[in-house]
Backbone:
């Protein structure tokens, strides 16, 4: 159980393109989903917390207009990187937490490798 | 400094035990977690321990928690080459930098 599906797993696109990444909890409901960014050989950096039915909470230094988050249902959150540039190239990972409370563990997707040319 | 700290590298021989250590700062965390990340993949929840426990065993994995010292460890018995990965210690929302475990045949 507790499967989180992330799509796509890998995307390459030209500079200036907007890219949408989906995060789905397949067998449980997730009130809260998280979006992380991971640079090579580094830990995860929390970008934003996505709450179903409300606006996402962004971490300091993360541009909300650049990284648009929509959490329209209890099983789906999307991250759109708008007008992506080479410096946005990274590994983006989402996670979802059971609706049971903040002490529940996070379950992670397999990540999306984004390469901007 | 980081709220969750762990050593960056560990190398062991196949069949030996691996012990990955972690220190944390938030004593209010109800659970503490260990995640595994293989190259190019997301994080896999390995195990977690409730904060009022001092030990949890799950097959080859043993988690020890010293709440007084805010020290958490993960022991992998009979380490296999397939265990080579990065292991992250985490409080609810904070992750350590990850320990890269290399298992040599």
Residues:
């Amino acid at each position: 159980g507790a499967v989180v599906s992330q799509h796509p797993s890998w995307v390459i696109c030209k500079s200036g393109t907007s890219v949408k990444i989906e995060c789905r909890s397949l067998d449980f409901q997730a009130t809260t989903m998280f979006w992380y960014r991971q640079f090579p050989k580094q830990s995860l950096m929390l970008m934003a917390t996505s709450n179903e039915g409300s606006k996402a909470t962004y971490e300091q230094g993360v541009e909300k207009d650049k990284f648009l988050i929509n959490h329209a249902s209890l099983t789906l959150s999307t991250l759109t990187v708008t007008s992506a540039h080479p410096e946005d190239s990274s590994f983006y990972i989402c996670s979802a937490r059971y609706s049971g409370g903040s002490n529940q563990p996070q379950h992670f997707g397999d990540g999306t490798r984004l390469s901007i040319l | 400094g980081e709220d969750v700290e762990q050593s960056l590298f560990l190398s062991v021989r196949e069949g030996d035990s691996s012990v990955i250590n972690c220190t944390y700062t938030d004593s209010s965390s109800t659970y503490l977690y260990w995640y595994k990340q293989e190259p190019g993949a997301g994080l896999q929840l390995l195990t977690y321990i409730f904060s009022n426990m001092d030990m949890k065993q799950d097959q080859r994995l043993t988690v020890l928690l010293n709440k007084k010292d805010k020290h958490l460890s993960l022991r992998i018995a009979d380490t296999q080459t397939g265990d080579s990965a990065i292991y992250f210690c985490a409080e609810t929302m904070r992750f350590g930098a990850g320990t890269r475990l290399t298992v040599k045949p």
